[in-house]
Amino acid sequence: MTANEDQEMELEALRSIYEGDECFRELSPISFQYRIGESGDPKAFLIEISWPETYPQTAPVISMDAFFNNAISSAIKQGILDKLMEEVEVNLGTSMTYTIFEYAKDNKEIFMENQPVNTVTTLNNSISTGHSDTAPPTKKKEKKEQLSKTQKRKLADKTDHKGELPRGWNWVDVIKKSSYLDNLFE
């Protein structure tokens, strides 16, 4: 079997195995990415594997240069790459992309044990628009209740010249309730 036939068969196998797997990404027919760990996991990392023309007789190119891995120290990246290359040497001559991804998944905790977990994971990438960052947020205008002319007239009759209801306008209800309670407990 030629290298190209091996690659075609492995490509079909990878597509069927990882169909629907959100961690797997085919960048091209000879280049793949796999995210090891959940997307919110601070110890997750991304492996990229590319096949040279003579793959699988020669080793694939394994990279951890993706932006996703920027928070990982270079020493840990190199350690992961060294372990993955040991696995490549064992599997040289056979289709190994799936094997490498699974090996990385199985050994994630060991690979990342010395990686510090950053508690702050967000970066402030704001663009200045010429306004200060301390400007108060704009208030959303509240919609006023729509009143009919008759309702407005009744309200105007009850209010004083400032638009306020006179003191004690609702005392009648309190007195009515008070006398009701008195009668109830007699």
From TrEMBL:
Residues 9-111 form the RWD domain. Residues 122-132 have a biased composition (Polar residues). Residues 154-164 have a biased composition (Basic and acidic residues). CDD domains: RWD-RWDD4 (cd23817). Pfam families: RWD. Residues 122-164 are annotated as: Disordered. This is RWD domain-containing protein 4 isoform X7. It comes from Pantherophis guttatus (Corn snake).
